[in-house]
Design goal:
The chain is of the alpha/beta class and 317 residues long. The chain has a domain at 119-274 and 300-315: 2-enoyl-CoA Hydratase, Chain A, domain 1. The protein has helices at residues 68-80, 82-95, 100-115, 118-126, 164-179, 210-220, 223-229, 243-249, 278-297, 303-309, and strands at 5-7, 26-29, 47-50, 63-65, 140-145, 148-153, 185-190, 233-237, 240-242, 254-257, 262-264, 301-302, 314-315. Strands 5-6-7-8-10-13 form a 6-stranded mixed sheet, with helices on one face. Strands 1-2-3-4 form a 4-stranded parallel sheet. Strands 9-11-12 form a 3-stranded mixed sheet. A hairpin with a 2-residue loop joins strand 5 and strand 6. Helix 5 (164-179) runs parallel beside helix 7 (223-229) and helix 8 (243-249) crosses helix 9. The protein is globular. The N and C termini lie far apart (49 Å).
């Protein structure tokens, strides 16, 4: 695979022979005026604009940055994991036209492709010695008071890393909320210093068959019952909100964050994309371009920036 390509003018994108020479990404300079047309569809890898975010082409590209340093970061990350970067942008382009349930199925299949791919295998080989956190299985505190259901991630010593027991408990609790119309309010929070640092890393790679892993996600992903009760769901987020923890919270009708909250999607460095519903939940909240930025940059988003984007609805505390 060749290096990322930098195009002096947007019009050069139409002449790029990307089908004959795969590349990890293309950077389009948006200060040279708009071309008459762009390729339809876009090349099967990230197409990044450098220039003003209100440029006429901005909405057609995968993301737009206004600083050369940000562009360099994204290009570098795409070059390190080009398969995951390409699958991400193709998925985000596709699910814009799908309903949420169909989009979740598409996300799971895309995630499965990468689970069986060389980039994730390389990551697993380099992290084979990750031990399970010595905290015991995850717990979910469930409290019902009249018509309110309160759920609290209760694995504070592991910063509420979501292992299988905790994932399954979340699925069951959200199924209860989805099936019981008398529950008019659901609140999700986390114990300890963080809302959640995402999936338990020691469990990555335990299911090596992508087809079986896809089938498991279709049965067990909390996102499925969340879709049926999200209009009643409030997520209260503090501290770190990473990976699958963020993906789940972003489905909520209301996300309330403390000033110290921060948000991150680190999956690209693992040769993956968000696979707990985040490609759907975040793109519905903040759009395709900002979702792509969070994944392809891997950067943290502080609470105030998240509020400006619409990733959170209110800051309290």
């Amino acid at each position: 695979m060749s290096d990322p390509v930098v195009l002096p003018e947007p019009a050069d994108l139409t002449a790029l022979c990307w089908w004959s020479e795969p590349m990890p990404a293309a950077l389009v300079r948006l200060d040279a005026g708009a071309p008459d047309a762009l390729p339809a569809p876009l090349p099967a890898f990230p197409v990044i604009g450098l220039g003003p975010r209100d440029h006429p082409l901005a909405a057609a590209l995968d993301l737009v940055v206004d600083e050369p340093g940000d562009a360099a970061l994204v290009l570098r990350n795409c070059a390190r994991n080009p398969d995951a970067a390409a699958v991400l942008v193709q998925l985000l382009r596709t699910i814009e036209r799908l309903d949420d349930r169909s989009a979740l199925v598409a996300e799971s299949m895309a995630y499965g492709l990468l689970q069986g791919g060389p980039e994730h295998r390389d990551w697993l080989a380099g992290h084979a010695a990750i031990p399970a956190l010595p905290t015991g299985p995850g717990r979910l505190e469930v409290e019902r008071s009249d018509n309110r259901l309160r759920l609290r991630l209760d694995r504070p010593a592991a910063h509420n890393a979501i292992d299988r027991p905790l994932r399954d408990a979340l699925r069951e609790a959200f199924e209860l909320a989805a099936l019981d119309p008398d529950i008019t309010a659901v609140e999700l929070s986390g114990a300890g210093r963080a809302f959640s640092v995402g999936a338990e890393l020691a469990e990555f790679g335990t299911t090596r068959d992508p087809l079986r892993a896809h089938a498991i996600r279709l049965r067990t992903l909390p996102a499925w019952p969340i879709l049926a009760c999200r209009d009643r769901l409030t997520a209260r987020v503090h501290g770190a909100c990473i990976g699958s923890g963020l993906e789940m919270a972003a489905f909520a009708a209301r996300v309330i964050a403390t000033p110290d909250a921060w948000f991150q999607l680190p999956e690209l460095a693992m040769g993956l994309i968000p696979g707990a519903g985040g490609c759907v939940s975040l793109s519905r909240r903040i759009g395709r371009a900002r979702t792509a930025w969070m994944v392809l940059s891997g950067r943290r988003v502080p609470a105030r920036q998240a509020l400006a984007w619409g990733l959170v609805d209110r800051i309290e505390g």
